[in-house]
Amino acid sequence: MSQDVQSILVIYTGGTIGMTRDRETGGLVPLDFDQVTKHVPELDHAGIEVEAVSFDTPIDSSDVAPKHWRTLAQTIMQCHDRFDGFVVLHGTDTMAYSASALSFMLRGLQKPVIFTGSQLPIGVPRTDGRENLLSALMLAAHQTDGRATVREVAVYFGNQLFRGNRTHKESAQSLQAVVSPNHPPLVEAGVDFVVNEPALWVPDPELLRPEATLDFRQEVAWVSLYPGMPLDLLRQTLEWHDLRGVVLATYGSGNAPTAPLLKDLLREANDRGVAMVNVTQCGHGGVHPELYATSHMLAGCGVIPGHDMTTEAALTKLMHVLAQTDDLSDIRDRMTSNLRGELTPYTPTRAEAHGPAGAAGLKAL
After folding, report:
1. How far apart are CA 167 and CA 365, in angstroms?
2. What is the per-residue DSSP string for 143-169?
3. pLDDT exceeds 90 at position 282
4. CATH number, span 6-212
5. What is the average per-residue pLDDT within 92-98?
6. Which residues does 5 contact at the CB level (< 8 Å), separation at least 6?
7. Which residues are known to be catalytic?
8. Hey, what CATH topology would domain 220-353 get?
9. Which of 149, 204, 353, 356 sits between 20 and 30 A of 159, alpha carbons compared?
């Protein structure tokens, strides 16, 4: 193989990108991956050698579970030395979950792992799958100064490459369906690839090859607060015997009702060793418990601030961390640490730290 040719492994899990219309029924049916590559003849001129593997039975992304994340991570680790990069073809509905999970599983990546998919099947005339696949492959092969430009888990969609654990599917209709609300694109794809170097993740220089951690704890819950929510609903979740962790989706900068019963429920769960993480319901921004008394109440009950993590990142990170430790202090340290670029650590301004509400800088409501 020429030194100018990059070898990329494509891992086909399923999803819309690998579908075509059945001529008899008109319904969507999956293609063999060999057929998918036939729809992208430009690959023959891209200077990329592509090999492919596929799940034995391609799955809809709605059926994705941690066992599939383990299969992806194991495949990447087993093939790491043979390929220059990896492209994962995945359904869009849960792509942000899978990309987030893989980012936490694979520490010290020195090669790109790029997820992509499409809103329209690759076997129809107006598909976005062809461009998404071709650009994902080219970015997986892209090098800067003789090494991979991207050395992390990323998602390519709609002419942009995003950090995987910063993504969220925003639209069921748009061809720009995936967004990164709190981190800029890693690459903008126009006439040329414009790389945003300051936005790229820099892996641990002490690791020469990735290390994989495959375990997840699935005894977690996600609870989104809403006005008038019966707290008995929350009680039933928090009193689940096997519960290990909860992601709470709260208002604004991390606010919740001041009801004494809510406070009691959270304290009881914390006392039982349940790890609770606070993320915002807002599409942009993050949790800042220093700002308001209502969010300070949550912190006082042991709820861990999720900063500006997406719900997808917070859930998969919590599942990952809970598989490593039972100690709440250790869980807090890991959840608030920036492990793979998934969050922006919050530093209070001087005004917030020394504001009129006292040392915590709380703003009265």
Report:
1. 32
2. EETTEES--SEEEEETTEEEEGGG-EE
3. yes
4. 3.40.50.1170
5. 95
6. 47, 48, 49
7. 16
8. Rossmann fold (3.40.50)
9. 204
